[in-house]
Amino acid sequence: MTLEFSRNPFLAPSTLPYQLPDFASVRDADYLPAFEAGLAQQLAEVAAIAANPEPASFANTVAAMERSGAVLTRVANVFFNIAGSDGTPAVQEIEQLIAPRLAGHADTILLNGALHRRFLDVPTDGLDAESARLVDEYRKAFTRAGVGLDAAGQERLRVVNGELSSLSTQFAQRVTQAGNDAAVHVQDAAELDGLSADDLATAAAAARAAGHGSGYLLTLILPTAQPALEVLTNRETRRRLHLASVGRGSGADGSNVLGLAAAMAALRAERAALLGHACEAERSIEPQTAPSLEAVHAMLSPITAAAVRNARAEAEKLAATAGHAIEAWDWAFYSEQVRRDDYGVDLAALRPWFGLDSVLENGVFYAASKLYGLSFTERTDLAGYHPDVRVWEVFNEDGSALGLFLGDYYARETKRGGAWMNSFVEQSALDGTRAVVVNNLNIAKPPEGEPTLLSYDEVVTCFHEFGHALHGLFSDVGYPKFSGTNVPRDFVEYPSQVNEMWILWPEVLANYARHHKTGEPLPDGTAERLRAASLWGQGFATTEYLGAALLDLAWHELPAGTTVEDPLAFEAAALAAAGVDLPAVPPRYRTGYFNHIFAGGYAAGYYSYIWSEVLDADTVAWFKANGGLSRANGEHFRSTLLCRGFSVVPLQAFRDFAGRDADTEPLLARRGLA
Questions:
Q1: What is the rounded distance in angstroms from the CA atom of residue 567 to the CA atom of residue 259?
Q2: Which residues are catalytically annotated?
Q3: Is residue 584 within 8 Å of 326, Cβ to Cβ?
Q4: Half-sphere exposure of 651 toward its Cβ, with a 13 Å CA cutoff?
Q5: Mean pLDDT, to the nearest integer, of 369-384?
Q6: By C-alpha distance, which of 142, 127, 126, 131 is closest to 63?
Q7: How far is CA 93 from CA 25, 83, 261, 303, 437, in A?
């Protein structure tokens, strides 16, 4: 080992508190050598487990497997967060190289017949429930990975998985670039009438940062709907912004993005057939909490019919308000007008009350303090991976340490769109580690010295993503495989959605919603008007979501051997077949920028949000019926569900919390679909 390599920060656990990665010492040149060392280390460890002459036991097989790959885990946890949040060209190049290597590495482990036989030989008599569950989950993982295939099938599977990994990386990188390229440059401020002075300053700063000598730049967030469409009075500007949004990845410059999506769908269909499934959707849903693909469709179908009916009624009301037929770029603008006129709610006018620091510290953290007894201390002595990243140490009510929370809230050209939570260190008793988690958002950064004021949707996102963070921080399990958010995809959104309930809780709202200049609270009655207005627009919101969820399923219900030559025609046909082809209500994500399913691990799983919302809405009803924001309620939710990760069957954790199975009525009532 050379002296230079011995200094690689990933070769040993960080000496910083909670093993926070020493970002200050990490260079791009460290990643590939650390990946190489980590891959080699884990392969050697796995080979030793498989060749162990001693009889298979939990300790020498299962626990040994859980301990393997420490270097690989450390570098991967850092690198893939950096690739999403600060993906410079150098980082993107490394990602292209390493992604297929990691896919092949996973196959080498899970297609190892000798290793599989050893796991089958591990006796489970006398094991505690979590350890026995771990053995069972590993056995299932081998089977799902294709260990039972013959040599030719396994070889083809390795090729397919490698190609999918490479294509997924390319898709994510090109979508980020397409979003940057599609930002709308406006020269005349008059064309941006409706934007606040703060928003105009932010747009001017964005134009300078992008190299424009003058004018304003409207940058794009990842979903179809763009916040500025709610306030821009100039219809042509709204049209330009909307078309830029829906056209990302689908025009001449982005045609390869569509080609990547079609290629991935074909490869996923082939893999599903290799593994004995009718389609990728069936294969993907098999390990989820949803019992089957048919069950997913059975849930979505009646909701779709009701949502579309409500959306059509909303469109008629908007047309009457506007005095003309409603196009997609008109919807948000006139919907806000209805919200103002009929409910007395002007979301854009509320931004001065939603300063980022106050939302975080006096809202998100305050709710966690009242509910779970947590306290937060900002650690300015600990550095993040970017100057914008902030670090807080989190403590339990008794003063004991819980973990670290990092916040990376601002958009940048090198950050992918959307919002997400990642773990740098996962809690496990086996490794003696506590959680280190990060929330990433994409809030437009204001000019130096100006306050960061959030839209109401961004406030929702702050609370939502912190729900994921709590799920990771509260983890109290024995093994890394079960830690925190390592739960089925259609369960992972549930705790985060529950955390949104505290946004308008009177005690919480009064604590954080203060005017950033005067300190005055929200005008009297605002929260009540927001609640009253919550049903308005649910037809649109549910339909645009279902459009994306059903498009996702359509891409992944293709049988093996199917080639989609025209992805946009396929998309249009899929939306029409599902009954959600409303021109004024495009899906939340179109194929050309659907990162969730082509690059984010949600293939055939975008239905998860509404599947999880059944549990979420029922849980909100439980909290309200049992006294709301109280330490007793928080402790019950934490101890029965949030701390358990995947160490128990997720729906059993819900039963342990609620004392029964979930009821769908609260969801239908929330969305006005009862």
A1: 7
A2: 465
A3: yes
A4: 13
A5: 98
A6: 131
A7: 20, 10, 20, 43, 25
Report pTM: 0.93
Q: Mean of the pLDDT values across residues 505-530? A: 95
Nearest C-alpha neighbor of 439 from the set 454, 425, 423, 455 = 423
Interhelix angle 28-51/89-110, rounded to 10 degrees, is: 0
Q: Looking at the DSSP assignment, which residues form a beta bridge with residue 420?
A: 440
DSSP reduced 3-state for 597? helix
Q: Which residue has the tokens 């919302």?
A: 613
* Domains, the chain, with CATH or none: 3-148 (1.20.1050.40), 182-247 (no CATH), 278-343+536-674 (1.10.1370.10), 353-534 (1.10.1370.40)
Q: Would you say 336 and 348 are in contact if contact means Cβ atoms under 8 Å apart? A: yes
Longest dimension (CA), the chain: 81
For residue 377, give the 3-state DSSP assignment: strand
Answer yes or no: are the C-beta atoms of 173 and 90 closer than 8 Å: no
Residues contacting residue 577 through CB under 8 Å, at least 6 positions apart:
554
The tokens of 151 are what? 């040599």
Q: Which amino acid is at 376?
A: F
pLDDT band at 252 (very low <50, low <70, confident <90, very high): low
Annotate 302-361 with DSSP letters as a single string.
Answer: HHHHHHHHHHHHHHHHHHHHHTSPPPHHHHHHHHHHHHHHHH---TGGGGGG-BHHHIII
Q: Cα(474)–Cα(466) distance, rounded to whole angstroms?
A: 12
> Is the distance from CB of 173 to CB of 116 less than 8 angstroms?
no
- Contact status, residue 85 vs residue 123, Cβ threshold 8 Å: no
Q: What is the pLDDT of residue 5?
A: 60
Q: Which residues contact 555 (CB under 8 A, 6 or more apart)?
A: 261, 265, 570, 574, 591, 597
Q: Cα separation of 221 and 215, whole Å?
A: 20
Strand order in the sheet with 375-378: 375-378, 390-395, 401-410, 435-443, 420-425
pLDDT at residue 674 in the model:
75
Residue 1 has pLDDT above 50, yes or no: no
Q: Which residues, 6+ apart, have CB-to-CB distance to 339 below 8 Å?
A: 345, 346, 347, 533, 536, 537
Q: Report residue 32 as tokens.
A: 């590939």
**DSSP conformation class of 606:** T
Q: Is 311 left (phi over 0), alpha (psi -120 to 50) or beta?
A: alpha
In the numeric block, which tokens belong to residue 269?
Answer: 């269909």
Amino acid in position 555: W
3-state SS string for 275-286: CCCCCHHHHHHC
Question: Could you tell me the two tokens for 313?
Answer: 């009624």
